[in-house]
Amino acid sequence: MKKFAPGFLIGAATAAHQVEGNNIHSDNWAQEHMKHTSFLEPSGDAVDHYHRYEEDIRLLAQAGLNAYRFSIEWARIEPEEGRFDEAEAEHYRRVIRCCRENGVEPIVTLHHFTSPKWLISKGGWEAETTPADFARYVRYVMERLGGELRYVCTINEANMGVQVAAIAKRYMQQMMARAAAGQTDGTVQMGMNLEKMMANQKAAAQECMQIFGVEKAESFTSPRTERGDRLVAEAHMAARAVIREVCPQVKVGLTLSLHDIQALPGGEENAAKEWAEEFTHYLPAIQDDDFLGVQNYTRTRVDASGSLPVPEGAETTQMDYEFYPEGLEHVIRRAAEGFKGELIVTENGIATADDTRRTAYIEKALTGVQACVADGLPVKGYIHWSLMDNFEWQKGYSMTFGLIAVDRQNGQKRSPKPSLAYLGSWRG
After folding, report:
1. DSSP E strands, 73-224
2. Residue 285 DSSP symbol
3. Residues 11, 16, 19, 23: what is their CA dihedral angle, to the nearest 10 degrees?
4. Is the CB of residue 346 less than 8 Å from the CB of residue 254?
5. Residues 6+ apart with CB under 8 A from 241
6. DSSP 321-368
């Protein structure tokens, strides 16, 4: 194994709602508790990272990792529109300082999928007021915490709603054929339960009106319109302007969910279109960013008919993704063709109960990252998803992405997996 040079960031990531627990003012919390929910189970206490972050960061540092990417929860900071919670801001200050005390670089994400419930009642991520609302929240956070940070991601996977819209459309067109063939869709890079979503639509609309005051909750991960996509870009740019005004020393960017899109003969036009939707059309909004967060889990093969299922006989993960760690190197190289700032792998990982496969995945992925660095690409870090087994959105706790196992039935006991130390061993 060839280690990375000193200063290269090697770490792990979490998202607030997936690990902290009791995110009661968020849209997801409300949706998890609806009668006609698409979630297999509620998040509840999650893995209680809110109270146990010191233990978790110590485990990360003791394994040799030097970076921790985590998110600040907007719904905690601003539980009611215009009312900010100073105690919650201080909580995140303590998390940041805990990182520093353990020799760990904090990489903060300001929005990782969940939003305050009140934002959804205003129209959510399809409302023209959302970029300004987001910028106000970002200003509050940066004025209080920005002086202690070097890297800030404004929005996690800004393209997720576009991907969900495309997959929902494809699902509606193909669900009968897929069901007959016994296939599932493993192409969206987050835990979604599309079958239940489609079955619940009418009843959920009525319940949504009762809870949010709107017939459709336009959450960040809802299928997004072109208008909504524009608003997300505007929210990012507004946040970036605030960060540069308040904390000019901070490097700012966003993260994108990127597949290794591979064209089969006849699929070149479709593949180019998919890459444009997933990446290229965001370049005007991100070209002035300091870095891009690259997030990849698998590949997508495309022919003249569109995206293809996982190849027959291929190894798959718990999420029905194809086991394909080589995709990370391919995506880094392709992203670097369009984006000229720094690149940080902000998510890459595998949901599996077999930790030896996680270790094998890390080995191939990091070998690819090293090849990119050797060729002069400006890759500054690799952040694995995820630090701990956690709440995988609509799929609940059944997906195990973590470098650390958590026994939620036995006092939230943490048990580092061999893959955690293996990842740390790559540090120079």
Report:
1. 105-109, 151-153
2. H
3. 170
4. no
5. 135
6. -B--TTHHHHHHHHHHHH--SEEEEEE-----S-HHHHHHHHHHHHHH
3-state secondary structure string across 32-72: HCCCCCCCCCCCCCCCCHHHHHHHHHHHHHHCCCCEEEEEC
- Tokens describing residue 326: 């080589």
Could you tell me which residues come within 8 angstroms of residue 103 by beta carbon, excluding any fewer than 6 positions away?
Answer: 61, 66
What are the structural domain ranges in the chain?
9-424
Using alpha carbons only, how large is the chain's radius of gyration in Å? Answer: 20
Q: Which residues pair with 181 in a beta bridge?
A: none
Q: Which of 85, 91, 79, 82 has the alpha carbon at shortest distance from 116?
A: 79
Handedness of CA 300, 306, 311, 312 (dihedral sign): positive
pLDDT at 205: 84
Look up tokens 């910028």; give the residue: 135
- Asked if the 9-424 domain carries CATH number 3.20.20.80, the reply is yes
Give the mean pLDDT per block of 10 residues along the chain (428 residues). 95 98 98 93 98 98 98 98 98 98 98 98 98 98 98 98 87 64 60 64 85 95 96 98 98 98 98 97 98 98 95 97 98 98 98 98 98 98 98 97 98 98 96
CA dihedral 390, 394, 397, 402 (to 10 degrees): -40
Kindly report whether the global pTM for this prediction surpasses the value 0.85: yes
Active site residues: 157
β-pair type (306-307, 260-263):
unpaired
- Rounded CA separation 331/243 (Å): 28
Q: What is the pLDDT of residue 248?
A: 98
* pLDDT reported for residue 180: 59
At position 218, the amino acid (one-letter code) is: E
